[in-house]
Fold:
Amino acid sequence: MTPEKIKNLIEKGIKKGSDVLKQRQESIVSAAFIMMFLLVFTKIAGFLKAHLFARFFGTSPEMDVFWAAFTVPDIIFNVVVVGSINAALIPSFTEKLEKSKGIKICSKLGCPDSFVKLFSDILNLFLLIFVISGVLIFIFAPQLSRFLSGDYFKGFDIDTAGFSGNDFDLMAKIMRIMVISPILLSVSSVLTAGIQVNKRFIVPALAPLFYNLGIIFGTVVLGKFCNMGVVGIAWGVVIGSLLHLLIQLPLAYSMNLKFNLSFKFINKDMIKVMKLAFPRILGLIGDQVMLVINTIISLGLGEGSLSAYSFANNLQLLPVHLIGSTISQAALPTLAVEYSESLNGKDFSKFKETFTKTFQQILFLILPAVVFIVVLRLPFVRLTLGAGEFDWNATVVTAWVLALFGVSILFQSLTSLLLRTFYAMQNTVIPVIVSFIGLAINIICAFYLTNFFSHYYDWRPMIVALLDGNFFISGEAVSDLTNWFTTRNSSPAAIGGLALSTGIALIVETILLMTFLNAKLKYIKWNEFVKPILKKFFASGFMFFVMYFIYKLWNFSLDTSTVVSIFSLFTICGGIGVISYFIICSVIDINEIQFFINILKKFINKVRAVIGLQPK
Structure:
């Protein structure tokens, strides 16, 4: 092949790739499929990122400092930007495109003037907010560092981190570096909203992947090889945020998404956007307050506690994002349209049917994921994080926290659908009220449960005796309960209390949201809703006992020095568990199994078509 032919092939490949990236996805199913497919690669990069964190830094005090410093800029971004995207920006951008008298989409032919005006105004507002907040964080970084470490609470008999002056200086330094990140991400997120309302999902779905790749670069090149430590990770966060923005700029430019710098951005449209965003932002403030409280509590539970909690939290979010969030996000447009149609005809049957089917589908997929993670938590943590500085003790503590996150995985996935259902009904008040109730429960449980689990070695013998069939409990043990819940002891198991408190709060939130929704729709019926749920719990319970029996029968002593032995246990036990779940689902006639078999067949046929094999 001549150089000229090679050049032509490369040019054709680049052009074809560029056309694919710019392609519109008109179907909700195709959009959801693309987001889920690319999310898998993002999560793989996220696993690699977490693995490198664990390998190079483990659950060290230095890593605790990084996680604590990351909290402040991350909170501001989540409250302002994440709170606005689904609740305000996308609906407002969509409305501008629909009401445009001329061009209905942004392309090389142009973009509606009203859309460009709103797009620029929102960007100007976000830039102003994040530049001001960045300056304030830069100035007050030392004070914020002492606040997060609990240094200001030492006079209130609260356990705090044993940080020194060097730790405070390091946290302030990292915080000052990372204030650049939310500024870049805020601009990039507005671009994401503008691109997605024009039904282009591939490039926005790639942006988080490049964000993780930037952090990986900072961790390996700057943190490890340039000996910058966690400061290198901080610069990696900035690099990742820049890549998150840069990957979207060419498409935004080709779509004529223009930005006009101006300080006159408060107008009727912007006030409407802020009114839409305010309830959601208020709810997220409650979530971020809980994040700060968890950070302060975990830093007072001993060295490495915050890192173990953060690592376990990242692992438990994998099934939540892949299953709960993705399916819920894909269902939101359909729910919104059907609810609007239901208001006209006063018939909510179609809306209820869509909600019920989506609820059952999420439950069908998330329950085996919970069982898988809870039973195989040790090999899962060891395979993803276990290397270098992440020793066996860190593995055990992180796996313990991950197991207690099992409750959270289930109910966070269901809550993601319930919240979007209320948004489809244009009701943001009930989710906010429920969120603050959950916040109060989370705070109370976090305090008492971290105390209780800090006495793990005191009450564990009693649990072992009960499991052995000795049901006699001494009066002294019962009287110790009050002491266990109200005093703090020293045990690495204490950090598990934060994970369990999150799960308890989510249980209450799920029950309240379902109750309020049922009062409106009357969707909770035995045959259509309750009976299928009980079947799924029975099937997942069967899967749990099969996997647990195999795990114990194997009598496996985890060899932390060999990946092969751990991987064998993980794949064989997990594979048998999944097979048993699908077998029992078929036997007791769970409807969703055939639905997902059909989806799998369609996916296989699409893959065969792509690689040039025609499906039979």
The chain has a mean pLDDT of 80. Residues 63-201+239-300 form one domain. The first helix runs from residue 3 to 22. The chain has 22 helices and no strands.
